[in-house]
Structure formats: C-alpha cells, structure tokens
Amino acid sequence: MREVPNLIACDGCDALYRRPLLRSKEIIHCRRCGTELDRDASKKKGKILPLTVASVIIFFISNCFPIIRIDVHGLSSSTTLFGSVLSLRSDGMDLVAILVLITTILFPLLHLLFLLYIMLALENRRSPAGFNWLVRTMQRLRPWGMVEVFLLGVLVALVKLSSMATVVPGVALWAFGVLTVLLTAVTSFDPRLLWSMANSGKSGTEAT
Q: Region 147-170: what's the mean pLDDT?
C-alpha cells in the first residue's frame, strides 16, 4: 500500500481515499475493488516491542546453550547451534553449513535487531535513520528465517537417535520451541503498522 499524508492508495486499483479514524477492530475496504485498505491496530502496537525484546533474549539463550546431549556407552557429547554449523563445515558440507548459518542464526537475528531498533526509536517519538530501507529489508529477510524448519529437523533426528543412544534435550532445544512461537507472533505483524506508527510519530514531533 502506497501512502501519503492523510491519503491511502488502494493496492488493487490505485483508488485514493482520505484516511479515516478507525474505531476499535474496524477494517476498511476499497469501495471499488474490495481490497483491504487499513485496519485498526491500536492494541497490537503495544505488543510489538515486548515480543521483540522477548524474542531477542530467547534467541541468545537458544544459541548459547547446548541443543541436545547424547550419551553412548558412557561417552557424552553436546553441541550448540553454532557448534553444529562448525561440525558441518569440518565434515565438508560447506553449503549445508552456510544454509543453517543464514537461515537459523544470521537472518532471524538481523530481522529481530532491525525491528528492535525501529521500535525503540518509535517509542521515543522519533523516526529511525534508514527506516524505509530497514522495513523493506525485513520483508526480504522474513521468508529466509527457518527456525521452525530447523526445530522440526532436530525433533526428527531425536526420534531416530533415541533407539541408538540416550538423548537428553538441552536448554536451547526448549528455547527454540519458545522462539518459534515468538517469531511467528513478531513476523505476523503487518508492516503497514510500522509505517503508520512512524507517520504518527512524525506528526507528534511536528505538533510539538
């Protein structure tokens, strides 16, 4: 949706409308083609920052503690997510190691840090530097964050290994489960909400 002050352009047919004041849970649609123009998100605004902070904390927990511990004939072995990346690389699976690194560590972390930076700036009633680029980059990173796919792969591996060794889930495995839920909640926010918050912040700054 392309936006200018006090106007909304429909994504479906480019019709222009004056931005109305939305009541609680109200959704407005284009009169010409029926495309959704905007919806009330007043309750969601206060949830983005706490969910983002919680996601960042859980993300670091999931990457700093062992995922699982395997006991075989008295020998014990455990590893973290980054340790598994290094193991894949040492076994000659460089491409797989790179994919795990970018889809479960790098891209999700960048997405969370960008969103945290934006929300902290908006909470202080100022527009963050590079706001447009950050929001667009987050949209591009979103499909590449595959923490849930990694978690599913670990669970499948646990089931297969359970018949050959004693497998003990680590702190990071539980943290990954929580992180999957939090990331789903964080990435489900419509980016239009960030734009509207940025525009309202600018208006508040100009008014003062």
A: 76
What percent of the chain has pLDDT above 70?
Answer: 83
Q: State how far Cα 183 lies from the chain centre.
A: 5
- Quick one: tokens of 28? 């407005």
Q: Which two tokens stand for residue 88?
A: 């894949």
For residue 24, give its domain range.
1-40
Residue 206 is assigned to a structural domain of this protein: no
Q: Which residue has the tokens 């004693």?
A: 166
Nearest to 116 by CA among 194, 200, 195, 204: 194
- Find the mean pLDDT for residues 124-148: 83
| Three-state secondary structure string covering 38-56 | EECCHHHHHHHHHHHHHHH
- The closest alpha carbon to 183, from 120, 141, 129, 132, belongs to 141
Among 110, 101, 124, 116, smallest CA distance to 52 is for 116
Confidence grade of residue 44 (pLDDT, cut at 50, 70, 90): low
What is the count of structural domains for the chain? Answer: 2
Asked whether residue 40 carries a pLDDT value surpassing 70, the answer given is no
Residue 203, domain member (yes or no) = no
Question: What confidence score (pLDDT) does residue 199 get?
Answer: 67
